[in-house]
Every structure is written in C-alpha cells, then in structure tokens.
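User: ok so my PI wants both of these folded by tonight, can you help

Assistant: No problem, let's get them done. Here's the first:
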Amino acid sequence: MATKVPIPKLGQSEETVVVENWHVKEGDVIKKGDVLFDIETDKAVLEVESQFEGTLLKIVVPAGKEVPVMSIAAVIGEEGEEIPKIEEVKTPEPDKKETGKRGSGETERKRSGETVKRRDGKAGGGSGSAASAPVAPSEPIRKPNPSPRARAFAKNYLVDLDTIPGTGGESGRVTEKDVRNYLEISGYNEIKITSAAFNLAKKNEIHLLDVVATGESGRVTVADIRAAIAEKPREYNAMRKIISARLAESKRTIPHFYVTVSVDMTDLLAKRKEMKAKGLGVSVSVFIIKAVALALKEFPMLNAATDGMSISHKSQVNIGLAVSLEGGLVVPVVKNADKKELDEIDAEVAELAEKARSNKLTPGEMKGGTFTISNMGMLGVENFAAIINPGETGILAVSSTIPTPVAVDGEIVVRNIMKITLSADHRAVDGADGARFANAVKAKLEKPAESG
C-alpha cells in the first residue's frame, strides 16, 4: 500500500516551510535513512529522511514551494502501484503566515515515516508529534523571506539582499541561486579589493556594491571602506528621538505662519554698557526675555495652548529657552518672567544654562513653559525661523546683532540691527496679531529705558 510522506512540523508555532530541493527523483528506489528533501524555515535548514522502503512514486511538492506543515510531500510504494489522489497544495497567503520564535527541542524526531535531521548530521531520534531545532533569536522578517542559505551567502559576499529579486517558489523568495546570479549581473565579480579592506567591510557589514572605489585601477581600499562606514546610518540617541518626534508632530499638525521684523539694538547695547560700568552685568538675552514676557501680557493668544477646537490662556508667563547641547537641545523655563527684574532673570538664566550643560536640569525646571525663545545670536545668523513647541502657540527666533547701514532721518548710518522672527499657530493667532506682537517686542527692545 502506498505511503504518503508529510512535511514535518517544526515546533509549536511553525505553520509553513519551504521545500528547498529534492535529493531524489520519481522512480528512484528508496531505502530507510535516505534523505528525501530539504526543508527551510526562516531560521534553519533541515533534511528529511525516509523511514520507509520502496519506489518514489510521486513528488507532490516541487522544490522552492512554500507549503503548510503536514502537507503531503511525496508518495512511496511498490513500483507500478496506483497513486492515491492528493489535493493540490496551495501556497498560503503571506499575511496569514504566522512568525515567531521556534522551539529549541530535539534536533531530530520521527513522524509518519520521516526523520528530520540537522544539516550538521548530528544524530537524532526519539518519538513525538513534532520536530524542532535550536535557532537564533528572532530578527526582522523580510517579505518574502530569503532562504537561510541566501542570507548566509549574501552576508559572506557583503551584498544587500533587499536589492536582489527572488525566484524561489510562488512567493518569490530569494534563494542562494538568486544571490549567485546577482553577483554575475551586478558586476560584483569585477570588484577589486584588498584583503584588509574586505575584512574591515565584513566586520562593519558594508555592502561592497555601495562603495566608491578610489584606489589604483579601481581597487577598493581601506580608506574607501572607512568612508562607507562613516556614512552608515546611526540610530538617534534618546534625546534626539524625542526632538524628532515632537517637532515632526508640530510641523504636521500646527499651521505655522511667520513674521520677521528688524530691531535696532544700538540704544540697548549702550544701556547695557552703562549698566555693566555700574557693576550690573546683564546679557542681551535677558533684555529679550523681559521684552517678550511683557509683550505676551498684551497678546494673550500667544501665551496659550490650543488643540484647534479650543484655546487655553495661561495665567503665568513662563519663558522657555532653547539651549543647544551635544546631540540635541533642552528647554529650561524661566517662570513668571514678566514679574522679575533683569538681574533676577540674569541669575536664573545663568544657573539654568550651567545645569543644562552639565546635565543637571530637573524635570521641574523644564516644565510649564508657555512660550519659547530660540536665540542663535551668538552664532552669526542673519535670520531663521523656529518650529513651535507642541503645547504652545508661538516661538520667537532671535538672530545675531549685525552692524548694518540704515536710513535715519534721511541719512545713511550704521546701526546694530537684530532680526527676530515669530512663528505662530494660525489656529490661535491671526496674522495681524502676530505682526503686532513682533512689533511690540521690537518697541520694548528699542526703548529699553521704558520697558526695563
């Protein structure tokens, strides 16, 4: 009586496998222990041995096809025996295939006349309803999933599997043969590379086809590999990830508009010089904070928060200061800035900046901001626009103070000009109000005796 040989199940979570290739053909005489075919999962390659003797009457599952476990792979019986009817095995839909970690049980088990054996040939045996092999920890699944041999081959030859078209089975998975063919057509075999460069590339997982060769006669050198290493993507640190997420959210959800005005800082710089001569050294940033805080009292829509459906005006004026650090920035907050004197603000700003640079800011010192100032005046910037902090309705970008020829009373004179740019949330702030706010800040800075 003919015997149906099934595809073995490899652990509790295994649902499908691929018959990679057959070691026998129809009509061959099969003995117990003969290897019939190889099966592949996304983590292992295993051989299936026969536990029956007879003639291989039919191969049901062709090489390269992905099928559910326990599907009938072949029929063994007496030569000339009638082959039982077997329904066609269909490739499962990719989205129905479950993935996960496979068990780490025995390396070889028998079931319904077949034995699953590790490629390393280690002895197995025993009984049970499933076979499983130890595997590496799970890793990102490619769709369609390349064969283990293809992955190993591509890794050894330093090529990118994502660029290789697959021809394996109905799912189009990438096989070792596909990788070999790709090496031929891509020009890989023409690459000249020093052994030191190759070893460095392999250590750092550099794809050779992406490397620009600058060596003599087009040879890839260690310097070329180092250049490729320098260009490899590097994951953001935690701070940069937060900045990226928040600012992307801001630009995606907040309709920004921008207003720029030029501020004549000549008189303020003169006043600051006088104050310093009297023993009161106050930075220009302090004057800006105070001017902004006072202007926010006049324009409450910019000292607020909105979700696009309602607005919440803040009772306190808490100014956030964007402080640049290596790898990111932080925003410590000067609370109740409108009520503080210049020297109080100056001392607080100096303390917050020092804490920021030494990573000693507390969560409380970075919470509660109602409006933010981004000051790049010390960086030689003529003008820029900042992105609004989510939860606020505006941010002021402060540029450098630059000696500039301007017309005063019909004459060209040189004045110290600083541009400021307001970024405002158009859901809460109208353009006219944004312009009036920017000019209110300008007026307070240009007449420091009246606003300080």
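One down. Here's the second:
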Amino acid sequence: MSTIVAFSVSPLGTGDSVAPAVARAVKVVRESGLPNETSAMFTTVEGEWDEVMEVVRRAVEAAGEGADRVSMTLKADVRKGVTDGLHSKVEAVERELDGLR
C-alpha cells in the first residue's frame, strides 16, 4: 500500500528550542532514501506502509533523545496503486488553480 505520512515530532521538557531534536528526526527521514519534504510545520515521507512507519518510529526515537516524553502529530494517506503522490497530489491542485485564473 502506498503511504504518504505527514508528521511533526517534538520532545517535551527540553527547553525553548526544539530545532536540534527536529533536525535529528529529519536526518533519519532523509537518510531513509524515501521521497520526503520538510516544511515549517511537518515532514512528509512516502513509501510502502511498513517502511514509512519504521522511518517515523526511528525519527521519533531520534527526536526524543534526552527527553522523557515526545509529542507527535501524524496524518496519513494510504492508497493502492499510487506512485509519487508526494508530487502528483500538489500538481493536481495546481492544475485546478490554473483553471481558476
């Protein structure tokens, strides 16, 4: 099953800035080799269910280094027969926007 997951992860009780923890999580995602993008609020990763969820698990562990608690928000799109949904979904919206101009 093709899966796109958008998630954010943040350790709790480690100070004002979570940038070091988020960087550790993003590093795990990028090193996975799966298609991914990072924005100001979420990291999105695409692949088969098991491989995506394993990357998310490892990213949460990396972000939680030195923390007793981690908060995570996750949204998933699980769909049969889709490849490169990370880009094709955005392209579909862009085509619709072109029609509205």
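The helical segments are 19-31, 49-63, 85-100. The chain has a mean pLDDT of 94. Good luck tonight!
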